[in-house]
Design brief:
This is Membrane protein. InterPro entries: ImpA_N (IPR010657). Helix content is 49%, strand content 0%. By secondary structure, the chain is mainly alpha-helical. It has a domain of 169 residues: Serine Threonine Protein Phosphatase 5, Tetratricopeptide repeat (Alpha Horseshoe). It is elongated.
């Protein structure tokens, strides 16, 4: 089974403010309050926080920034990872975590609550996230109980964040599911209503039958045209015997035969 970062037992580290990775991580986090609002490299910030936890040890400020980076990258699930890690460190290390001064710890938790509320308001949450929201709310309740038991922070440091998680989950739970479309009851169809009998016999008699093209008689070929007949007038002239002095010359007659 793979061990996640919030399942590991990190040792308590000292003051990290002189470490290069901590200074680089702080420079990224300071962009949140910069007037120009430059982009923050959240994967790089998460990498720096993990390196500090593994090589230097845990402190409240590094864990708080790690939780914020996981929230930006993983949404509500990332918030749960960071809160679980912070709670486990407080239970085991408690008062040994840096910083030990109460005002400094109060400011860390106050700033973390503010930043996480900003993250939640920017998330594109759906009703499928209700379970994760409720888990985060339970984690905050357990986390706050640890703070009160160990007396290492004032009361209700994360109450605003818990209230936002609760109201968000409640809003999704109160949404009515989309009503199912009514199903039309089946319609019984009798034999008289089948497509083949929709036309009555009286109406069918009024419909002209469609001619069957396959049964049409074949057209007979046309006979060749008969030769043109000579006019009767000239036929009589040709039959008469030639008389002396006739105007018809022998050379003209053949053209009418």
């Amino acid at each position: 089974m793979m061990t996640t970062h919030h399942d590991r037992h990190y040792k308590a580290g000292g003051d990290p403010r002189t470490l290069a990775d901590f200074m680089a991580l702080r420079a990224e986090m300071n962009k949140l309050s910069h007037p120009a609002r430059p982009d923050i490299n959240w994967p790089y910030a998460e990498q720096l926080a993990r390196g500090l936890l593994e090589h230097h040890g845990a402190d409240l400020q590094t864990v708080a920034w790690y939780t914020l980076a996981r929230a930006r990258l993983g949404g509500v699930a990332g918030i749960n990872e960071g809160l679980t890690l912070m709670e486990s460190l407080l239970v085991r290390q408690g008062k040994n975590l840096w910083p030990q001064a109460l005002p400094a710890r109060t400011e860390i938790f106050r700033t973390l609550s503010k930043r996480l509320r900003q993250v939640i308001r920017t998330l594109n949450l759906t009703p499928e996230d209700v379970e994760s929201l409720e888990q985060a709310e339970r984690s905050l309740q357990s986390f706050d109980a640890v703070l009160q038991r160990l007396e290492i922070a004032p009361e209700n440091q994360l109450s605003d964040l818990r209230a936002l998680l609760h109201s968000t989950a409640t809003r999704f739970e109160s949404l009515d599911p989309a009503p199912a479309l009514p199903t039309a009851p089946p319609v019984a169809v009798s034999d008289a209503e089948l497509p083949g009998t929709l036309v009555s016999e009286e109406d069918a008699a009024k419909v002209e039958p469609v001619p069957d093209l396959k049964r049409r008689p074949k057209a007979e070929p046309l006979a060749p045209p008969s030769p043109a007949k000579r006019p009767r007038r000239w036929r009589r002239l040709l039959r008469q015997p030639r008389r002396a002095g006739s105007r018809l010359s022998p050379g003209w007659l053949p053209c009418w035969r």
